[in-house]
Structures
1.
Amino acid sequence: PAFFATPFVSLFTGFIAWKYRFHRSALWFVAAGLIYLCGGLLLTMMLNVPMNEALALREVPSDIPAAQEIWQAYSGPWQRYNLIRTVLSGFSLLCVGCGLLSLTQKA
């Protein structure tokens, strides 16, 4: 639930912050929610999960060179997408931190 709810909780927090005139915080929370929605949730659902499912359907070859070939074709792209997810999730967390810090200043 935390993985799926995170962007929506951030967006809702931004709405509440805006309603109570914490505009700077609201923008940070909305940014966090949008970054996580696109870079965490959607990227995972559209790229990593289908890659995992396709790999799971492959028969594991008995000879090591064939298994290495499958893994090498899979691992590079999967790791690239995972790195993008990690970096964007970190930026989302940074935005939440900035939103929390800016709660001390109404704007």
Note: The radius of gyration is 19 Å.
2.
Amino acid sequence: TGCMCGALAAGILVISLLYGRTAPVGPRYGCISQLSAHLHQRFQEELGGKCCAMLRPFYQKIDKENSCRDIYKKGAELAVEVALSAPGLVPECRMPRALQRFLGRIV
């Protein structure tokens, strides 16, 4: 429909991969619903909307290449922000070990 920005959808996908269930049994969504809602809210606050059809014309006017590069950059930053702060945002979210190890290497 053109109404969910691809940058937002990609951010939700990444957060779901990190914090989603790892087996077909157990809670269906866990903390994903809350994290997704938080990303939606942050995206709306930072970019002024979540609908591609609304965002694209505005951001293409300010981009020399007429692309959505700035939207994707900001969307990626917001997804990383939510992923790294997930345990503080939603107490039942536990940071995956792989992410903990990765962060331990770069800090």
Note: The chain is about 65% helix and 0% strand.
3.
Amino acid sequence: VLEALEAAIGSGIVEEAVAAPGKLATYRFCHALFQETLLRELSAPRRNRLHLRIARLIEERHAASLERHAVELAEHFSYAAESSDLAKAVTAKPNGISSELWTCKLP
């Protein structure tokens, strides 16, 4: 994985996000087209599993501050294949947004 990450960084596809001291490094795509292209190459079941895995990791790592990650959780759970995860996507809405508006944002 590290070799692939380093190759992607060297090719200008991925860049390291600014990390706070003592925090794990995070990475992002240099352009949205790179991300879209790679996502299209994944099968739908694999994409769904990845979204589910990401959402569960966010829940685990940010258990004390889920409200701050509500938008990310809703996005990833909405793409997960299980209906129970879609329910989590709807209930993860941040405070101050009506349920009607929030559910319209789901794919």
Note: DSSP finds six helices and two strands in the chain.
